[in-house]
Design goal:
Order of helices and strands: EHHEEEEEHHHEEEEE
Oligomer: single chain
Shape: globular
Distance between the termini: 9 Å
Number of helices: 5
Helix content: 25-40%
Strand order of the largest sheet: 4-5-1-11
Radius of gyration: 17 Å
Structural class: alpha+beta
């Protein structure tokens, strides 16, 4: 599990390993800040996956499943990337597991309870109305839901059907591997792993890797929460 600060002063040096389609996606973003953040996030992802797979980052090839979920061609490593403003999270899981991660900037300019009534289940709404910080609670639940649907590959349409229970060992959907992440002040984060075959027992959440390629150590922080 890695946390990436995207506002790097020398972000231009992270452009070379990206593929043509990745560079096109970056170029299509509206602002220079978002283009730089996209570039840093995807280069960091390549650095992590290159280290784990033993393949130079520039030579990694990505494919997409029928639902648009990305995967690493030729390697059984499962991964997921999420970014929000100046922070990104990268999660990796070993063969036999799928992983989803989400990070969100906590925003106070939204009618979070109205949104929750549209997207959340009654038990979740009841919890938010009684929470000490309903806004933070809304975003924690959102991160958990999105991490889960990203892990199982059902898309955002599955958010409403996903139940998050915050008491004790939090559960989400059919998975019991939800972890909340302390990303940075003003941010919420969550990671979910689920077995490829849902009926199989789930092991502990993915183990953090302590080292990455030389030159990105100052960019990537390992998270173990």
């Amino acid at each position: 599990m890695w946390r990436v600060h995207l506002d790097q002063p020398d972000g231009a040096r992270w452009t070379s390993p990206l593929s043509g389609p990745e560079r096109d996606r970056a170029a299509a973003l509206a602002s220079p800040v978002e283009r730089r953040r996209f570039t840093v996030a995807h280069n960091a992802l390549r650095a992590v996956l290159g280290r784990l797979s033993g393949v130079p980052p520039a030579r990694l090839v990505f494919g997409t499943e029928h639902n648009g979920r990305p995967y690493l061609v030729g390697h059984p490593i499962d991964f997921n990337l999420s970014r929000s403003e100046e922070w990104a999270l990268i999660a990796v899981a070993p063969p036999g597991l799928r992983v989803g991660v989400d990070v969100e900037r906590v925003r106070h300019d939204l009618d979070h309870l109205a949104m929750a009534r549209h997207l959340y289940q009654p038990a979740e709404i009841d919890h938010l109305t009684r929470a000490a910080s309903p806004v933070e609670g809304y975003f924690r639940f959102w991160c958990a839901k999105e991490a889960y649907v990203k892990a199982v590959g059902v898309g955002l349409a599955g958010l409403r059907d996903t139940l998050v229970t915050p008491e004790g060992n939090a559960t989400v959907g059919s998975s019991r591997s939800l972890r909340w992440l302390d990303v940075a002040p003003g941010y919420a984060g969550a990671v979910v792993t689920t077995a490829v075959m849902i009926h199989k027992p789930l092991p502990d959440l993915l183990r953090p890797v302590s080292s990455v390629d030389h030159g990105v150590d100052e960019l990537l922080d390992s998270i173990d929460n």
